[in-house]
Specification:
16 helices, alpha/beta
Amino acid sequence: MTAHPSPATALPDEPRPVSPSRVLVLNSGSSSVKYQLLDMRDDSRLAQGLVERIGEETSRLVHAPLQGGGGEKREKKGPIADHAAALKAVAEELAADGLGLDSPELAAIGHRVVHGGLRFTEPTVIDDEVLAEIERLVPVAPLHNPANLTGILTATALRPDLPQVAVFDTAFHTTMPESAARYAIDVETADAYRIRRYGFHGTSHAYVSRETAKLLGKEPEEVNVIVLHLGNGASASAVRGGRCVDTSMGLTPLEGLVMGTRSGDIDPAVTFHLKRVAGMSADDIDVLLNKKSGLVGLCGDNDMREIRRRIDEGDARAALAFDIYVHRLKKYIGAYYAVLGRVDAVAFTAGVGENAAPVREAAITGLEELGLAVDADLNAVRSDEARLISPDYARVAVAVVPTDEELEIARQAFALVGGEVSGEGVGAPGQTLGEVNA
């Protein structure tokens, strides 16, 4: 029998097997693709970019190489016909930096998928059956799932040999009890049309709740956190011991907090009233509540920086919009405090949550009896780091925790297929992280 050299005695010039450690994260919108390439050995970013206005003459690609301290940002303008052309352009930019999609170091492509219904509770290797289910959920996510599907199909065509992993926005919220997830409507009707509260921004809530526990020096299982994801879209969640028990968004991302252009909570009868009295169609009302409401409907602006500037100049409409926004936020903090029973931290995240100190201060002011307080000096500090902004005496910590949805997607995707690195093989098509770990 011929002896083969062990790794310890391998010849110096013998090529060593490459251990794939990179994940490309794709977030495909209806006319855009955001992407990041990460190395999961140290969670470092190698490149990131954005393709926007796909299908228009004014398409734009912005690419930033980040490895080795970063390089010059590159921008290209000109028509990009469709998502296939967009991803090919992305591949070319990555290849120019020596990070091409044909690299043997690429372990997987992770896709953000907005709606996974009740079936997908974990990241999942994509196959035809998974694709069919994502498509079947289009009626409850008509703006997002079709774009996510397009990104998946395009990436698969570029690298058919590579695991494509779906990470679902709704997955983190599937741990909600039925008492929180069900609407009080006829059960047969609800079940027939899959009407229930699914929640969104799940990758952000998962990441931020864990990072908040780390900030407190505890394990996620030891901590109860209220997470406030405040961007143009906004949502709150109650997280008990690392598991979501309630969240503000529902069947769609329209429910809950006041947002940039969405109304959030509203009496359902408003829709009947607008149909009967104003003669508005279902599509008209959809546009009103999703695109012409929230902050933009109240004062004409959905940028919190501009709203604060107007308030400083004495603008009454901007001040009222801000007050309505904060009032809704306080209601959810109080409600989720009641749901959790014990709260260890309230964590602010996303564009507004991370950068708008006046929002954080206003949301917490008046909640001192709940053990909440904000230190004005700490709150005024701008930083990219997770940090506490509550005084030492506060019973409940108040934190600012920058979200990182791309890193969360990459981690989940790599955990699913990362067995390849240790020679165990990637997850099988349709396989979930739970099945891999079973």
